[in-house]
Specification:
There is one protein chain. 30% of the residues are buried. The chain is globular. The protein contains five helices and no strands. The N and C termini lie far apart (45 Å). The chain has one domain. By secondary structure, the chain is an all-alpha fold. Helix 1 packs antiparallel against helix 2 and helix 3 packs antiparallel against helix 4.
Length: 149
Amino acid sequence: MADWREIINDALADESGDHVALFRKYELAAEAAIEEAQSCLNDSWTEPSKMMETVYGGMVAYSNQVLARREAEDVDAGSLDHAFRTGQAYGVSCVLNHIIDRLRDPSNVSQLAALDAFSDKMHDDLLKDVKEIGLTVELLDAKGNTITE
């Protein structure tokens, strides 16, 4: 089974500019996370924190897969396609940041804290993109508060 963490790290370090290759890497990471999550579900002894970490990884990979697809499609900033893909990634980011980030790992054996910091940065980057293209929808920051500026 492929390790979704390694695949995401590889994709994040990829500076080739090949957005189609990035899309495929994030797609592979999402599939690997789903496979690992199912394996955890099949193992009734798996710690809940491990399960949540794996689901989190799958969602991070999916959100980045959507952004890589947007870049691969080379859509014009501010176009309907650009807004759709940005909104799609923003929606996943909101679930990560407003729901899953509220969970805490009492055993401290998972990477949930590091993933929280990563998803906050991803969400902030999405918000910058939304502001740059002038989308006028109500936005939430990484902690779920309405942005009023």
